Amino acid sequence: DPLWSRGLGDVYKRQELHKGEPIDEPVIVRADFYLPKPKKPRWVTPATALDTDKLQRALGDGMEKGGLLKNDARIITWVATKHYSKDRTGCQVTVVKHGVTAVLIDFQPR
Questions:
Q1: What's the pLDDT at 78?
Q2: For the CA atoms of 4, 21, 27, 69, what is the dihedral angle to 10 degrees?
Q3: Angle at CA of residue 33, ends 27 and 37, nearest 5°
Q4: Rounded to whole angstroms, what are the CA distances from 24 to 37, 66, 73, 83, 85?
Q5: Closest by Cα among 110, 3, 108 to 55
């Protein structure tokens, strides 16, 4: 989703969440995506649009465009989960390189 990709890139730039050069080494990304709960959800968990793989792609693109990663191909492992939420949308992201937490991001699109 382009909104997620653009929005995440803007968050990185605006909040200066990562100072210095973009990370140019293998990283592990943990992402929890929070989506609005429909009035009558079919399932208890969000097994509907937005697709998890598309959210991951948007997040990877946003991290690259925003200057956190030199290239989103540096992501060697993804752990991504979608959740329904009544009070928020967005994602919380942890990026780990060589066992050290590099960045924790809490993104909520406007």
A1: 95
A2: 30
A3: 170
A4: 37, 14, 10, 30, 34
A5: 3
pLDDT means per 10 residues, the chain with 110 residues, are 60 62 92 89 87 89 86 95 88 80 66
**Three-state SS at 56:** helix
Round to whole Å and give the CA distance between 62 and 11.
9
Quote the CA–CA distance of 88 and 65 in Å, as a whole number.
24
Q: In b/e form, how buried is each residue of 4-25, taking b as 16+ CB within 10 angstroms?
A: bbbbbbbbbeeeebbeeeebee
| Residue 22 in tokens | 């973009």
Pairwise CA distance, residues 105 & 83, whole Å: 16
Please tell me the distance from the alpha carbon of residue 26 to that of residue 97, in angstroms, as a whole number: 6
Cα pseudo-dihedral 104, 8, 45, 50, rounded to 10:
-160
Q: Are 56 and 78 in contact (CB under 8 A)?
A: yes
